[in-house]
Inverse folding.
RNA sequence: GCCGGAGUGGCGGAAUUGGUAUACGCACACGACUCAAAAUCGUGCGGGGAAACCCAUGAGAGUUCAAGUCUCUCCUCCGGCACCA
């Protein structure tokens, strides 16, 4: 046998798969679809980064597993090729960005193909291709048409180095996200996209639906939770998660279906949260006289007690079965009821979960195996409780998924984002509920409106603070009694940058306007200040100061020597005047000095006073967001031209659809200008056009779109990438979208991910896409850092080159190492040294082939006739389950390690059966596609291993006949004992108490109790 | 400051969710094969101790028959937001 030589086999299989079109997604497939997506790379001049490989391999494994599971899989690839690095390179070298892009994509394509990713290359896209950006522009025109794209003169973030405006999302710590230069404010006309119109939906649709588990029985809670495993978009909560519920008045009857209904209705009424409840009953068929018979198991098993124990149930059933005859079937019937937010309930019965059968047909009882199942062993006649929840709940879980989950979700597209992604997006959108309060101003014709989330403390309000750039100041400055001082102050403020202000430690400054607002609650006159800690863009650009209960207001009050009133008393009981910042009671406590609010909790008081103020007409409840509209224009060359023509007569006119795409013209000089105009502005024969409306002289818009435009919808184009008439056909979109699983970087959570959700919802409203969310599941990978833990960069010199690694170790080893190196979602430092481990493993897998070749027919036969499963087979089936589960949970590192364990065990055997070896290869194939296909063909298969189905595990083989009991004395391990899996508790205890290593500890001591956990542990307490 | 996440050998990291702490891999040491080396295989590898045993999961307390896992207090690191009213 030849030795493992990756160079000989990898190229060969890559071209074989390509020739056989193994990875091309079929157009009219009858199969269930799976759409796996990775963020399409920006083809930089540096070539492929090992970080790309981590993400791509992970999704490749998932895609290959899905194919093996019988899905039609779309795993596409393309290029997000507009952007600054290419443009800057063009400026330096004078080479056209289009040519640079072509060169870079060629390199990336070659590198990606060398790694054996199962991309469907036939759908490759490129955002800089006019055939592609035609549709980016087309979607922009839709925004324009619906009034969601608009032009506005405003102060924007300007990067003086890149010489372009930036979106809020692109400014990090006051600096340009891309180049780190401190950003400046510039007043400029900008194209904006009204993402704030979608803020509420972008926030709300991130939340799963909350459903209460309406039972206090921990076994049932556990069961329902287990049944909902893998269900997306529903968050199950228990009584622990909500304020106490009094259910002493809940009365249950004898009918299990009715009980389930009663419970769900009762708890819904008590909590207002949609509630699911279950009840069950034991049902004996064919007895007596072929009539059904219901048994309240817990009651019948021990009538004198409230709840019989499991053991009592077993004894009861054993006797019961004797009485009714061996052929009887007994099963649990489950009644499940769900009461939704409207108070209407639905209920279903889950029938026929066979739990007792005399003639045990191994395969037949598994699918419907219920909770609290009891199984009679055909040989010994011993009943035993089964432990495997996955199997026990299968049928009930199916019932939940089929009948209840759709009802719970309604028309909501349920999404499953990694929790930290969800939270980060919510933070960024920054939804908050509050109230706009309007105060009259003493001796002034106008009123002032402020926004607050804490109106409960309004009796303690002592001042008003206005933003220097806020609307109130702009409109009324002329009439301020102290307008001179205010103007000087505003001038000072405008001179300072954000960074300077941060450096000063946010010292509060301000100036009195000479005006007093009047608090309608208590007629207090509140001096009005202009202060730069108030931001023009937040709320109404004005706030009411409650220095006793807001740290920032307190600091300002101290600076300005303003009055401080206490209206909340905290848990410390301090009611003295507030003079120190330690006394500022912010988010807990009870109201005082607040008239009708006195004595109420602050949260209760907030609700109460909001109602009160609305009723009195002092204020109006409102929801605000931190999210700002998206600044959509860039003053650079290498982006999609914004398809608008400015006409002196008609104003901004959309380029007619038939004239799309507006192609980027070739220019000589890509250099951005200091005037804030795009380099396109100087190309006269491109800029000067006729107005599409009046045919008069007009000029093209010379700003281009940001990098995020093309990537906001690219996953839709993959569905139908060659379509010339539409961005994608409705039919293709209906089949392929939404994306089932999207993996990408954390850095895109508030940029790309938010933007594309926005575009998608917009297209959904136009009925151009079938769902309201683009991605069902979003995971993210951790960064790969350089050796030593610093970020990989050319300047540090710690960049690793995939080409070298593929040459030296092979693509399979590189893929496997990146999956094995550590937890997928965590950052990790590169270590070329550690690659040897995965390589040795593959060599071992290669050598194992020989152990399958000298198995003579006799021993193959002998193996098959064995009754008990060999240890290896048990391990094999456990590994099948583990690898599958781990892939789904993106625990690739432990998936690999479990396959290493299996290979080590196989290696210890004299010979390995072809059957087992083949299963092993099929498990490994998604990770290392080349070596496994080679070995597969060496085993005389004619077709590719990647056309094989995903191995299934057999629970009977997985469950070992023997279990290792750990024996503890007072919690310390003192021994272990291998016992038969179905040994009874008494037998096990008896055996253990005879072991010499145990008896020596018991000498002369009294055993207080013995804890017995089946199949796991025995703890003797002395 | 607020919101997340994490802290386990020399290193990357496991631990069926409360049940054998340190799986798997790297590095290291010794042995076998070899003239030799590489590769491969085998053995060892948290600390203390001759051993029996004892002590160890950032620190300290608590709940429990049993805690890396749950609860509280604190420390450190990473990520996000940050004068958001």
């Amino acid at each position: 046998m030849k030795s493992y030589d990756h160079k000989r086999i990898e190229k060969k299989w890559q071209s074989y798969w390509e020739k056989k079109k193994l990875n091309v997604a079929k157009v009219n497939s009858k199969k269930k679809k799976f759409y796996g997506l990775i963020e399409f790379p920006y083809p930089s001049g540096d070539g492929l980064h090992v970080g790309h490989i981590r993400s791509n391999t992970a999704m490749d494994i998932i895609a290959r597993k899905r194919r093996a599971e019988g899905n039609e899989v779309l795993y596409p690839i393309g290029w997000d090729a507009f952007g600054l690095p290419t443009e800057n390179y063009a400026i330096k070298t004078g080479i056209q960005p289009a040519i640079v892009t072509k060169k870079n994509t060629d390199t990336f394509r070659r590198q990606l193909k060398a790694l054996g990713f199962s991309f469907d290359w036939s759908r490759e896209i490129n955002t800089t291709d006019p055939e592609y950006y035609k549709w980016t522009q087309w979607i922009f025109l839709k925004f324009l048409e619906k009034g969601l794209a608009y032009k506005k003169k405003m102060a924007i973030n300007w990067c003086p180095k890149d010489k372009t405006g930036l979106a809020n999302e692109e400014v990090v710590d006051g600096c340009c996200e891309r180049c780190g230069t401190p950003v400046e404010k510039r007043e400029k006309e900008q194209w904006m996209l009204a993402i704030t119109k979608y803020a509420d939906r972008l926030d709300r649709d991130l939340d799963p639906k909350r459903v209460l588990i309406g039972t206090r029985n921990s076994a049932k809670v556990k069961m329902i939770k287990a049944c909902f495993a893998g269900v997306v978009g529903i968050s199950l909560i228990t009584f622990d998660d909500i304020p106490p519920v009094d259910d002493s008045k809940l009365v249950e009857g004898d009918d299990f279906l009715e009980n389930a209904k009663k419970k769900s209705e009762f708890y819904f009424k008590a909590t207002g949260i949609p509630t699911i409840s279950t009840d069950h009953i034991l049902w004996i068929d064919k007895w007596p006289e072929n009539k059904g018979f219901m048994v309240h198991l817990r009651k019948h098993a021990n009538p004198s007690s409230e709840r019989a124990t499991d053991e009592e149930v077993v004894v009861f059933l054993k006797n019961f079965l004797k009485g009714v005859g061996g052929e009887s079937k007994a099963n649990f019937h489950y009644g499940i009821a769900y009461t939704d937010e409207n108070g209407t309930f639905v209920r279903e019965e889950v029938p026929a979960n066979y739990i007792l059968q005399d003639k045990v047909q191994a395969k037949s009882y598994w699918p419907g195996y219920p909770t609290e199942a009891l199984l009679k062993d055909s040989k010994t006649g011993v009943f035993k409780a089964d432990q495997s929840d996955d199997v026990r709940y299968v049928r009930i879980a199916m019932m939940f998924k089929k009948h209840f989950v759709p009802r719970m979700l309604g028309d909501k597209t349920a999404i499953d984002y990694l929790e930290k992604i969800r939270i980060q997006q919510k933070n960024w959108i920054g939804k908050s509920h509050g109230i706009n309060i309007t105060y009259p101003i003493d001796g002034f014709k106008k009123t002032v409106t402020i926004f607050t989330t804490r109106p409960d403390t309004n009796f303690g309000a002592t001042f008003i603070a206005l933003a220097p750039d806020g609307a109130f100041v702009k409109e009324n400055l002329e009439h301020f009694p102290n307008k001179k001082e205010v103007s000087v102050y505003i001038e000072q403020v405008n001179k300072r940058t954000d960074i300077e202000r941060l450096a000063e430690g946010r010292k509060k400054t301000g100036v009195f306007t000479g005006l007093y607002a009047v608090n309608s609650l208590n007629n207090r006159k509140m001096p009005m200040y202009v202060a730069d800690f108030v931001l023009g863009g937040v709320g109404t650009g004005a706030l009411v100061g409650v220095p006793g209960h807001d740290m920032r207001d307190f600091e300002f009050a101290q600076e300005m020597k303003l009055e401080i009133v206490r209206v909340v008393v905290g848990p410390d009981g301090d009611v003295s005047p507030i003079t120190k910042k330690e006394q500022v009671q912010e988010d807990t406590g009870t109201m005082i000095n607040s008239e009708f609010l006195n004595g109420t909790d602050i949260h209760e008081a907030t609700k109460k006073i909001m109602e009160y103020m609305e009723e009195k007409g002092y204020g109006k409840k409102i929801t605000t967001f931190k999210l700002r509209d998206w600044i959509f224009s860039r003053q650079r060359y290498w982006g999609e031209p914004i398809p608008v023509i400015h006409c002196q007569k008609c104003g901004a006119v959309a380029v007619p659809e038939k004239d799309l795409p507006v192609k980027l013209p070739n220019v000589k000089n890509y250099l951005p200008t200091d005037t804030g105009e795009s380099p396109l502005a100087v190309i006269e024969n491109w800029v000067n056009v006729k107005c599409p409306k009046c045919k008069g002289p007009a000029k093209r818009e010379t700003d281009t779109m940001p990098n995020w435009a093309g990537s906001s919808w690219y996953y839709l184009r993959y569905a139908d990438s060659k379509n010339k008439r539409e961005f994608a056909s409705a039919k293709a979109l209906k089949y392929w979208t939404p994306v089932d699983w999207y993996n990408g970087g954390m850095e895109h959570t508030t940029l790309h991910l938010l933007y594309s959700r926005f575009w998608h919802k917009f297209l959904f409203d136009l009925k151009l896409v079938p769902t309201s969310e683009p991605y069902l599941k979003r995971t993210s990978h951790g960064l790969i850092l350089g050796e030593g833990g610093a970020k990989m960069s050319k300047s540090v010199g710690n960049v690793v080159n995939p080409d070298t690694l593929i040459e030296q170790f092979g693509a399979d080893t590189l893929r496997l190492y990146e999956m094995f190196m550590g937890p997928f979602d965590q950052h990790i430092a590169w270590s070329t040294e550690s690659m040897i481990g995965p390589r040795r493993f593959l060599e071992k897998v290669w050598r194992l082939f020989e152990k399958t070749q000298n198995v003579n027919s006799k021993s193959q036969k002998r193996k098959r006739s064995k009754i008990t499963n060999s240890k290896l087979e048990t391990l094999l089936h456990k590994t099948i389950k583990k690898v599958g589960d781990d892939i789904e949970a993106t625990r690739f590192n432990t998936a690999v390690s479990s396959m290493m364990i299996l290979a080590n065990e196989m290696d210890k055997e004299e010979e390995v059966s072809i059957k087992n070896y083949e299963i092993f290869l099929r498990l490994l194939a998604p990770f290392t596609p080349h070596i496994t296909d080679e070995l597969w063909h060496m085993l005389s298969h004619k077709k590719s291993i990647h056309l094989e189905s995903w191995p299934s595990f057999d629970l009977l083989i997985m469950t070992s006949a023997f279990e290792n009991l750990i024996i503890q004395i007072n919690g310390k391990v003192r021994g272990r004992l291998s016992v038969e899996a179905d040994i009874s508790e008494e037998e096990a205890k008896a055996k253990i108490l005879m072991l010499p290593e145990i008896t020596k500890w018991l000498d002369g001591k009294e055993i207080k109790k013995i804890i017995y956990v089946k199949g796991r542990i025995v703890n003797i307490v002395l």
In short: The CA atoms of residues 435 and 622 of chain A lie 5 Å apart. Residues 285-294, 352-391, 857-868 of chain A have pLDDT under 50 and may be disordered. Chain A is about 35% helix and 20% strand.
